[in-house]
Write a structure and sequence with these properties.
mainly alpha, 207 residues
Length: 207
């Protein structure tokens, strides 16, 4: 990956994870918790959200493997302030991956329109394809039900009381489980990312 492509991909990743985190904050705000607002985190200014490890070091390291991945500082919220104690945390969690899926859909539509009507240069297709790919990876990865990923909060919100021991187990062994998933199981999800990319853009992943 050339230096320019690397920097550009990291910039797209940073803005995508910022949108993801801000979406959490706005959802919490709408549901009654203003923690993120009081801490100045309801902004798309990336400087408010950068995590030195997740936003810089990890993206550079993962780029060596042919893809770019990372994260931003989580937007804080207090689940006890949410109006819906039953569904509030689940809603706050799910809007993060949904925001990435929405970005992927928007840029996927733009790719199809550009290829059909040529109202933008083809170089835009490469840029938009990177946006789609990164946001699909973020959406799929974050829906995995392992703490601290958003999918775990969705799962916990759906679990009946008599199955809460599952939450205890996942939280207790979350570090081990996330390492196992990243190194051994994540590759099993790549065909799903590739399928979604093709459905949205009409192009093969790795354009």
């Amino acid at each position: 990956m050339q230096v320019f492509d690397l920097v550009f991909s990291i910039a797209i990743l940073v803005m995508s994870v910022v949108v993801h985190e801000v979406s959490h904050g706005y959802a919490a705000s709408l549901l009654g918790d203003q923690t993120a607002r009081y801490q100045g985190r309801l902004t798309l200014n990336p400087l408010k959200h950068l995590d030195p490890v997740g936003s810089i070091i990890v993206p550079i390291l993962t780029s060596l493997g042919g893809f770019v991945f990372g994260w931003a500082k989580p937007v804080p919220f207090n689940p006890y302030n949410l109006r819906s104690q039953r569904w509030g945390e689940l809603i706050v969690a799910i809007v993060g991956p949904i925001s990435n899926l929405v970005l992927a859909i928007i840029f996927g539509i733009l790719i199809r329109l550009v290829l059909a009507y040529h109202f933008l240069p083809l170089s835009f297709v490469q840029i938009a394809a990177t946006v789609v790919a990164i946001n699909l990876v973020l959406a799929v990865f974050n829906l995995v039900p392992i703490p601290p990923l958003d999918g775990s909060k969705v799962l916990f919100g759906l679990l009946p009381v008599h199955l809460q021991y599952i939450r205890t187990f996942l939280e207790q062994y979350s570090l081990i489980l996330i390492i196992i998933f990243i190194f051994f199981l994540w590759k099993l999800f790549l065909p799903l990312v590739s399928l979604l990319f093709g459905l949205l853009t009409g192009l093969p992943l790795g354009l």
